[in-house]
Every structure is written in C-alpha cells, then in structure tokens.
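ligand=oxalic acid
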Amino acid sequence: MATTVVPTQANQYVRAWVNQMVDLTRPDKIIWCDGSVEERERFYEQGCAEGIFVRLNPRKWPGCYYHRSNPNDVARTEHLTFICTPSPDAAGPTNNWMKDKDAYEKLTELFRGCMKGRTLYVVPFVMGPIGSRLAKVGVQLTDSLYVVQNMGIMTRMGEVAWSQLGQSNDFTRCLHSLGDLNPRRRFICHFPFDNTIWSFGSGYGGNALLGKKCLGLRIASFLGRQQDWMAEHMLLMGIENPGPDGRSEKTYVAAAFPSACGKTNFAMLVPPQKYAQKGWKVTTVGDDIAWMWVDEKSGRLHAINPETGYFGVVPGTSATSNPNAFESMKRDTIFTNVGLVPLEDGTYDIWWEDSGMPEPSRCINWEGKEWTPTLARETGIKAAHPNSRFTAPMWNNPALDPRVNDPSGVPISAIIFGGRRSRTIPLVYQAFNWVHGVYIGATIGSETTAAATGQVGVVRRDPMAMLPFIGYNIRDYLVHWFRMRKKMVDCPRVFMVNWFRKNEQGKFIWPGFGENMRVLKWIVDRCHGRAYARETVLGWMPRAEDIDTEGLNLSSQDIALLEFVDPDEVKSEILSQEELFLKLAGDLPKEMIFQRELLISRL
Ligand code: OXD
Ligand code: MN
C-alpha cells in the first residue's frame, strides 16, 4: 500500500486509529494532507484530470471549480442520520437511534474493503480559532477528493491541527466513504460517547463534510452539555453604529433560523444607504454555527464561529440579494450542482436561477442534461438544483468581522430566533425574559424548503432550528438551555423575527434582505435600553412608529398586518405545538409547561 510520509507531529493515537481504519477500508493509497497551498493546487489538478472538478474560466472565476454530485445525492438525508448510543434514551424522541454496537457492526461491513482501488485522504482540521478554549480537533478519513477540498475551505485544515492536538487523544474520529452512493447503503452515524462519526454512501454537504453538522453541531452539542457550553445552529454578526455619545458602538448578536430561511443573507446584511451614511455597518462572524460559553470575567455569553467558510445555497444569490456572498464566491470557491456554461474558448462559466447574471443560451444543468431557456420554459427544467451550493472562504467576505479569529470570541447581546411563516408570527417581538425566550426558541415553526430531502412547504417544529442537529435527548438539551442562564450575570435578550409574513394576495409584506436592518436597529436599541416596546400576549413588541419604515413603500395596512397578533391564530399555534409537546411527553421540562400556561392565560 502506497503512503505519503506520515507527519512526525501526528501523535500515536492518531496513527493507531488511522492504521485500524486502513485495515478496515483497504485503500490502495494513503495521503496525509498538510493543508498547504501547493497541495490544494495539486489536488485540483488531479481532480480535474479525474473528472471530479471542472476548472472555471480563470479570468472570470479565479481559483474556482465546478463539481456535479450524483443526482441521488443532493441534500442532507435526515432519515438516514443516526445517533448511536447504548440506549435510545440518550438519543431521545427526535433523533433516529441505532444501538451503537449494532451500528458499528452494520457499518463495519459496509466499510470493509470499500476503498480498494481508491485513495484514502487523512484530513486533520481544527474547528474554531486556534488557541480558543473551545477549539476542537477532528481528523477525517475520506475517499472523496471533493470532500478534502471543501474541508480545506470550511475548516482550519492541515498541519495546524497536529500542533493544536499535541499528544492528546481528544479528537473527533471522522470516517467517511462515498461507498457506491447507493441511498439504500447510506448511513450518517454519530457515536457521541466515542467522539466518533461514521458516514457512508454520500458525498454531499452535511452528510460528508463531517466538520459541519456532524461535529460542529451534533457531536459538539453533546460535548457542550457535558462541559457547560453550547453548540448552536446560529449565525453570528456584529453591528456597528454611532452610539448616543457619538462614539462608535459595537453589538454582537447570534441568530437561529431553520435551514434555508436566509441565514447566510442575514449574516451578510448590507445596511440600506441611509443607515450606511449614518455609520451603521454589519460584519459577519459566522453564517451557520456558533459555539458559546459563559466568560468567567464578564459573566456574559461569548461565541466563536468554528468554521472558516460558507457552504451557502446558490440559487437566488446575486449581487443584489447578497452582495457580500456574491463577492465572497468570486474566487477560490467550489460551485456544486449549478449550471455549467461551455464558452467558445473551451473554458467554462457557470449560471444559476436568479443570479442576476445574463441567461446563457444553453448550459449543462445540475443533472448533466442539456438546458436552454426554451426548455426551461416548456419543461420547468432548472439549470441549478434548488440546493446547489457554493463553498467560499470567509476571508473573501468584504464584511468579515475583525474578531473572527479572536480566541476569546465575541460577547453576545441578543439571540434572535426566526422561521419562515406566512401567517401568525409578527415581524418582531422580544421575549419577556430568558426562560420565555427559551420557550419561544423551542417552539419555532418554519415552512420547509429544499435544503433537506422531504416535503416542501409544510410547517415543521424546529426547536432552536436545531431539530436535525441536537446530538442527544432534546429534553436534556432544553434543560441545558435553562441551566445556562444560571451561569450568566448578564444574559442576552431574546427575540423572534419573521421576514416571511404574506398578505391576502399571498405576497410577502416585508421587503427583507438589507431592509432587515430596520428591525435589527430596534433590537440593538432594545439591548441598550433605548427603544420603546409595548407588552402583548406574545412578548414585547414595537409600536408601528418604533420601526423605521421611511422609504419602504408599505401602506399603513401592511404595517399593521406585519405586527398583527390574532388571538385565534395564536390559539391554533399553541395547538399545533402539541405535536412537539406530545413527542416529548413525560420528558418535557416544567419550564416549558409553565410558559405555555402563561401564554394561554395571557390570551
Ligand atoms: C445548511 C443547513 O446547509 O442547515 O447549513 O441545511
Ligand atoms: Mn445550516
């Protein structure tokens, strides 16, 4: 078996485990990745030669590559994702469970010899700023070069991980193989008690980039509960504005929205011109995952973004809808499952729906099929898959927050929850207190989209936007949220927002995107004790005049509807939470029941 030189820094625990996994999977070749620029270039060359990547026109898209996944492998597969523990109680009622021993047995048979004729890449990576108390080392073994290159963008990958790990045995063991990409032999298994992830049969996104959802959320949430910190499906952003004394003020907020509710757009919000002129600026710390702990000195919640890149949904992303994302993906980016446009000079361009880029006369679509505007009109065929993605280094983001690399993280003043709701939920309201905020977060509902496989457009309860990502029993997860309050001297204010309310004609009322700044301003002002709010059954709400709507072309009826709370709809909402409450049954933390009772009595 051919192998590159084993890095001297890779410790005995890593070596022993890699040997064991090599014995199981039997690759022809082993490459220990160093994470260097040269290696990255070499892998792209090789990937292009092997048909895994297509190099894009270097003038238009410098350092960018195209990849098309298997059409049966285009999104996370939650029904094939398992928490594997000795007893089902550890996984709880909202996870698929497999007995750990059975899962190892089943997957051992799948992994046995699965890398014959292939190369196994050893990918060491760090999640979180180097030196941060929460920084975690993972090592992913994979037979997918596409995964290696994505991990290189999404994590601090390479030799830096060996020095971060030192002689410790404390690293997440991530084993991954494409297998034969047969969905019937596809399993994403987490072994939280062993700090181990085994993923077989998928090469896409959260199924295969194991630092992201698997380590970054499922394993991390489990570790966080044991070690008194939190791993959340949250973006992190900084808001800079002129404070009351004229000096610049900076406020950091974390926000949780279920998948594909515009989290990346919100994280990269560009303030409308009139705000920018007054000195308002939004900076991005992260767009998907936040790891948070209580800082002993300040007693406040601090957060880091464990990732270094964006794995964002492409369709709909344009220079207008998200200029910072658009800018971020202009170089050194991987595009997956968009339309590939052959150019006359033999190079390639890309295109996707609602890109704001001129529509090509033809392209090869995400399934490898011929696409033309006429075919699109006649048959509805799409150039890009609705869940097609860009993997872009966050360093490209013109609005990157200067503290992304700060090991001590950023202090969080507000937590914002949101969902995609065409009715019932107003534009914004604030929880009465932390416990009420946890109840609001725990009962988030959102209309489903294409980010995960399954039915689109139905309201799904998604506690803290973490339903698919809580790596243990949701009962303990909620208790953990309540308990965290006790560690804080000053806790973040909690808010709920909904950008997606529709009018009677079925049209979105709120313009969204950069205009969300207007809501954010109220939130920031609330955090600093400056904004007015009235008490309602749901929580503290702004009066119509407390949200700046100047220049928005909203009628007074629209504004009234945005903040309208219909007691009958709220009653139906409480009833529809029943599904979640029943699932939790006897395990529901008592605070949740009290909050529900309080809401009913307010009605
Ligand atoms: C994601 C998701 O890809 O949440 O970030 O689905
Ligand atoms: Mn996500």
